[in-house]
């Protein structure tokens, strides 16, 4: 099964997102758990979540991706920002217990000049504080572009974080094609070799979701600017080789391209037509 969808607005709740996904030919989607730049959150609506679960089961939806807000930084130099990040993640994960098939993706963090080692230590400490045995939602570190002082643009950094966390079974990775190309991995030239490297350092069994984006920038630019499918430096052939790679073909693919709903519907249609596995 090809699980393909895009980022959707969570304003009207889970059931509305499920219906919107269906209307554009999607069978998965991504959404922000709360205001991406602020952090405010809606009241918990268990009926809406249950209604979404029914819809998703009826229509054979794949795993959906809950994305933590951008403001979250577990390795900020400010204690209150680090604390805020922990509170948000704890609350998000508690809420997500009510959704049947979902993963929780977050940006590992930016060390803001404190250094990579210090940043990684803070992220590990936070995850060891947040993760508990009862959490059923996999928590995913997103592969980053390496903009500013971002951590997570090298697979080795993700490995170090996972190594430091006690409840490793709760952790996974979400790979972003724009980010890893911007970070310097040769997505265009040899995506299979990138997967080999990921497998060697992190392990492909940790890969739970994929952000499918073209990039406005050249490889290794460390910029992080997404482009529409086929209109960026990756190009359509590269994107098609990603969705058809047998090692990751089972993953949910979420588009985060600069599009309105209609644009997403067209990209989904295009990718479905080019899917061969
Ligand atoms: Fe992201
Ligand atoms: Fe992403
Ligand atoms: Zn990005």
Q: Which ranges are low-confidence, i.e. pLDDT below 50, for 5 or more consecutive residues?
A: none
The spatial strand order of the largest sheet comes to 1-2-3-4-6-8-9-12
| CATH homologous superfamily designation | Divalent-metal-dependent TIM barrel enzymes
Give the names of the bound compounds: fe (iii) ion, zinc ion
Quote the CATH topology: TIM Barrel
Q: Measured on Cα atoms, how large is the radius of gyration?
A: 18 Å
How many helical stretches? 9
| Beta fraction | 15-25%
- What is the molecular shape? globular
Mean pLDDT across every amino acid position? 97
CATH class category: Alpha Beta
Give the total of beta strands. 12
Helix content: 40-55%
Structural class: alpha/beta
Summarize the main sheet.
8 strands, parallel, barrel
Count of discrete structural domains: 1
How far apart lie the N and C ends?
Answer: 9 Å
Order of H and E elements: EHEHEHEEHEEHEHHEEEHEH
CATH architecture: Alpha-Beta Barrel
Features:
single chain, 277 residues, alpha/beta, TIM Barrel, 8-stranded parallel beta barrel, two-stranded antiparallel sheet, 12 strands, globular, binds fe (iii) ion, binds zinc ion
